[in-house]
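Quick one, probably user error.
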């Protein structure tokens, strides 16, 4: 819906990556137990939560530069923003990576 104005949660990570997501979209967060270490996909938390449950200090999974593994990156700030356009891309696995964030 490209012409709909919507409210998004803007999540900024400590590495500067930003994700804008609606409060009821699912995302995978972690308690930062493996921060700064490579994590294979099968070792990650695969229990989704609503984006509104993400808090400053939590970690999100970020695809590494070599795209063979992920790293946990800490949430630096969370703000509410309004923007035009709302999209819900569907994938065969229900998972998606946006701005390198899983």
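Nope, works fine. Designed sequence:
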């Amino acid at each position: 819906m490209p012409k709909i104005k919507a409210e998004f949660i803007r999540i900024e990570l400590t590495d500067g990556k930003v994700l804008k997501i609606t409060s009821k979209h699912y995302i995978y967060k972690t308690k930062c137990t493996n921060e700064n270490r490579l994590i294979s996909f099968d070792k990650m938390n695969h229990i989704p939560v609503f984006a509104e449950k993400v808090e400053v200090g939590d970690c999100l999974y970020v695809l590494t530069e070599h795209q063979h593994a992920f790293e946990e990156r800490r949430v630096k700030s969370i703000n509410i923003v309004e923007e035009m356009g709302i999209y819900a891309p569907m994938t065969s696995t229900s998972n998606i990576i946006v701005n390198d964030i899983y």
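Strands lie at 5-13, 18-21, 26-27, 29-30, 49-50, 59-63, 70-84.
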